[in-house]
Each structure stands twice: as C-alpha cells, then as structure tokens.
Design brief:
Elements (H helix, E strand, L loop, with lengths): L4 E2 L18 H11 L3 E4 L6 H8 L3 E4 L17 E7 L28 H17 L1 E11 L1 E4 L2 E4 H4 L2 E2 L1 E9 L20 E8 L12 E2 L16 H11 L4 E2 H8 L3 H8 L4 H12 L1 E4 L2 E3 L6
Parallel strand pairs: 1-9, 2-3, 2-4, 4-5
Antiparallel strand pairs: 5-10, 6-7, 8-11, 9-10, 12-14, 13-14
Bound molecules: S-adenosylmethionine.
S-adenosylmethionine binds next to loops.
C-alpha cells in the first residue's frame, strides 16, 4: 500500500461477489501486507472475504456474523487478535436479515436500526467490543462510507466514535456502486464514489490498559447571541435574516441588544448602535426609508 487512495477496478478472488455489500479481497490483501497481523478477527464477515484472503496468505483468522448466530452487540469475541476488521452496514442502505439472509428481520441486525442515531450508538458498541479483543499495538480497521438521503449527508466515518490512537484514514474508490438502495436528492448531486478505511491502534503500553482514547464528533445547536466572536457583519446579517430579511433600525437593535458582543460594549460605554448602522450602510440596502434588507446579488 503506497498511497492513501485505494482503487481496485478488478475485485479479486475471495468471499462472494454476489453478496450484497461485499468488499474487495484486494483491500484485505493490501491491509494485511501493510499491518502484518498474525491473528485477524472479523465479527461481521458477510460472505467471508476476510477469512478467504487470510487463508490464502497463511494468517490465522476468526470470523463470524449474525447470519451464523454471532451477535457483535451481545456475544463475546472468543479470542484476542492484532487486527479486528469491521465492514459495517451503511446504516439501512442494504438490509441484511430477512432480505440478504434469513426469513425474518433480526432485532439486533445493525442494518435495521430504526434511525441514524440508534445506528451510531449500536455501531459504537460493536466497535468498542471489537477494541476489547485487540492486543496492545493491534489495529482496529473499519471500512465504511457516507450515506446521502433527501439532500442530507450522513457522514458515518465522522459520526462514529474512534477508539484508540488514529493511524491512518484511507480513501477507497468504488467501482461497482449499488444499483439501488441509495437515494439521491437530485440528479445534479455528485454520486458518492468512495469509501473510507479508518485505522486506529490500541497503545502498546500495558500500564495504561484501562485507559482508552475516544474521539467523537458532537452536534451543537448554538444560539449565536451567546457567541462572543461572531463578526459584526454576521451579527447584523443574522438579525436581518431573523426578521425575514426586512427590518427597521429599531427592529434590528432589538434583535441584537442581548448579543454577547453588544453586552460587552455596553459595559465599556461604547456606542454599539453606531457599529450596527455602519454595517447596514456598508453591506445592506435600504428598501424604503429607514427599512433595511440584505442586498440583492449583482452579477
Ligand atoms: C457490509 S456486510 C459485510 C460484507 C463482507 N465484508 C463481505 O465481503 O462479504 C455487513 C454484515 O454485518 C452483519 N451484521 C449486521 N448486524 C450484525 C450483528 N449484530 N452482529 C454480527 N454481524 C452483524 C450482516 O449480516 C452483514 O453480513
């Protein structure tokens, strides 16, 4: 593996190319050559691609899947390894139980979570369980992708918790994109043609074995009136937006009077209204006497 961009136009041999959502054996091959594992675990192995490549390369591998009775959310991984590989469902793009395998949906099928938040929570548990089975210095490898639905992006790799020390983020180009399942908001949206391989490592130090580094992203809904670094342009423009893009000077003063920056200036006796007027004059337009709006775009 020479670069962080991986591309396998030919799938390679191993696993089942007809298994929906299978991964390329060439990816496993390159990962194993790079990370040199001696014992691999794949607790969500699908058609068994990981195990087939490991066998070809003479590496010990334990693999299992919900379809064969192993549930990563409830069952214990039976042994430790130095590479735990996850190829997760991409939320519910492809539903497995009762569809790809079995006759009925399984309640712990990670491809059948009721919503994105539940999916993330359960995937975090699955990855954490995988992390438990890593030997010190071993790698947790997660193959995942983004989901785009009705114009909204669900960036799985960003929203997952990452356990251990980050080692590498690889981009894997996709050549055989699923023909259905993925919903595009419009024909003009770019098609997702890549996946991610997140590689983290369990630290080597035995002494800190109880400690785990967890990286997570956070969704914050912030009232910008509490943000002391919002720019003055931002403050005035946002006030106009909050007023439906039409407001008198007094309306705009009223909108911003409790803003953190305004309160700060008030305590020092600075004329914040003069700043508001200057921003309006320099960047907005007067639509009628004393009434302001954001300017039209001018080509
Ligand atoms: C993307 S597929 C893996 C495909 C595999 N890499 C291959 O090449 O065939 C994800 C797999 O996760 C399995 N799965 C879903 N929920 C699970 C759970 N709770 N425990 C174990 N496996 C689960 C599904 O049955 C499915 O086979």
């Amino acid at each position: 593996m020479n670069t962080t961009v991986l591309s396998y136009p030919q799938r390679g041999v191993g696993g089942d190319p007809k298994w929906r959502g299978n991964h390329s054996p060439l990816l496993s091959h390159d990962l194993f050559l790079w990370l040199k594992p001696q014992q691999i675990l794949d607790p969500m192995c699908g058609s068994g691609t990981t195990g087939d490549v490991a066998k070809d390369m003479g590496i010990a591998c334990w693999q299992n899947d919900l379809h064969s009775g192993f549930n990563i959310l409830r069952d214990e991984l039976p042994l430790m390894g130095d590479l735990v590989f996850f190829h997760d469902p991409y939320h519910d793009i492809i539903q497995y139980s009762g569809n790809v395998w079995g006759k009925t949906p399984h309640p712990d099928d990670l491809s059948r979570c009721p919503d994105y938040e539940t999916f993330l929570k359960r995937m975090d548990i699955a990855h954490y369980n995988g992390y438990q089975a890593l030997r010190p210095g071993g790698h947790l490898v997660i193959l995942t992708g983004d989901v785009k639905r009705k114009g909204a992006l669900y960036p799985l790799q960003r929203d997952y918790r990452w356990f251990g020390d980050p080692v590498q983020m690889l981009i894997k180009l996709q050549h055989n994109v699923w023909s259905n399942g993925q919903t595009y908001s419009s024909m003009t949206d770019p098609r997702i043609m890549h996946e991610y391989v997140i590689v983290t490592r369990k630290p080597k130090q035995f002494a800190s074995a109880w400690m785990v580094t967890v990286r997570r992203s956070e969704l914050l809904n912030t009232d910008q009136r509490e943000v002391g670094i919002q720019t003055w342009h931002g403050i005035v423009w946002t006030a106009l937006l909050a007023l439906g893009n039409r407001g008198s000077l007094n309306d705009i003063y009223e909108q911003v009077k409790d803003h953190a920056r305004v309160r700060k200036l008030e305590t020092s006796g600075t004329d914040w209204k003069a700043i508001v007027r200057r921003v309006l004059q320099e960047t907005c337009q007067s639509v009628e006497r004393g009434v302001w709006a954001l300017p039209q775009y001018v080509n």
